[in-house]
Amino acid sequence: MSAIDLPEIPVWDPLVRVFHWTLVISFCAAYLSEGELFEALQDRLSGEWLQLVHVWAGYLIAGLLLWRVVWGFVGPRHARFSDFVRGPRESFGYLKDALTLRAARYLGHNPAGGAMIVALLLSLAATIVTGLALYGADKAMGPLAALLVESSDATIDAIKEAHEAATNCTLLLVAGHLLGVVWESLLHRENLVRAMISGRKRA
Questions:
Q1: Which has the higher per-residue pLDDT, 6 or 139?
Q2: Helix, strand, or coil here: 82?
Q3: Residue 8: its H or E element
Q4: Per-residue model confidence (pLDDT) at position 1
Q5: Is residue 1 part of a domain?
Q6: Taking the CB of the first residue and of the last residue of the chain, which one, N or C, has fewer CB atoms within 10 A?
Q7: Handedness of CA 3, 7, 8, 10 (dihedral sign)
Q8: Structural domain tally of the chain?
Q9: What is the DSSP code (8-state) at residue 144?
Q10: In 3D, which of 125, 108, 119 has the Cα closest to residue 175?
Q11: Which residues are bridge partners to 8 per DSSP?
């Protein structure tokens, strides 16, 4: 029996899969409802409506991140940080092996993938915190409004730049994540996108 003919077994639990795809949808909604991409729509639709989508998508992402941190400690084996978070040496070593087509296959996240997950969680957290700060300083709304309601224009501009920088960093990490998924899928002849939908991988 060849490797690709081996039976599939459960790897990703339902909550991890719901988290993953809900996060994808929420981030897309938050990104597309704000910025230059939707300037034309903002002229035709209510700007307040688009901002409402942006804000509530951000709140949803914040809730998802908090839940994922908890699940990273109490969830099943492959959902736990202890299963895939490794040191820099092991993560970079795996990345080097992957680029030279010698990387070992992992049932859960590989060391480089684990590092990417941590980086994405941190970048998303920075995006949310700066977004809440901007909402409080510029609009006097949200949980940080009481602290930032009297912010100067210079402070608001600085927070806005930080929010945009965190968003752009997240976009770069997402691009790297997608590239890694494609590379690993080809390297190990395994559809990782389908695995995150079904929750099952080759034994």
A1: 139
A2: helix
A3: strand 8-10
A4: 45
A5: no
A6: N
A7: negative
A8: 1
A9: T
A10: 119
A11: 202
Type of residue numbered 178: L
Is 50 exceeded by the pLDDT of residue 40? yes
One-letter amino acid at 85 equals V
Supply the pLDDT for residue 4. 53
Domain that holds residue 27: 9-202
User: What is the dihedral sign for C-alpha 11, 16, 18, 21?
Assistant: negative
Instruction: Render the burial of 49-83: b for 16+ CB within 10 Å, e for the rest.
Output: ebbeebbebbbbbbebbeebeebbeebeebbebeb
List, for residues 175-200, the tens digit of each pLDDT value: 999 999 999 999 999 999 999 999 99
Residues composing the chain: 203
CA-based R_g, the chain, Å: 20
Asked, for residue 198, whether it belongs to a domain, the answer is yes
Spacing of C-alpha 7 from chain mean position = 30
Selection from 25, 23, 11, 18 nearest residue 79 by Cα: 11
Rounded Cα gap, residues 119 and 114, in angstroms:
9
**Helix, strand or coil, per DSSP, at residue 200:** strand
Residue 195 token pair: 């695995």
User: CA–CA separation, 58 vs 27, rounded Å?
Assistant: 8
Contact in structure between 32 and 38 (CB atoms under 8 Å):
yes
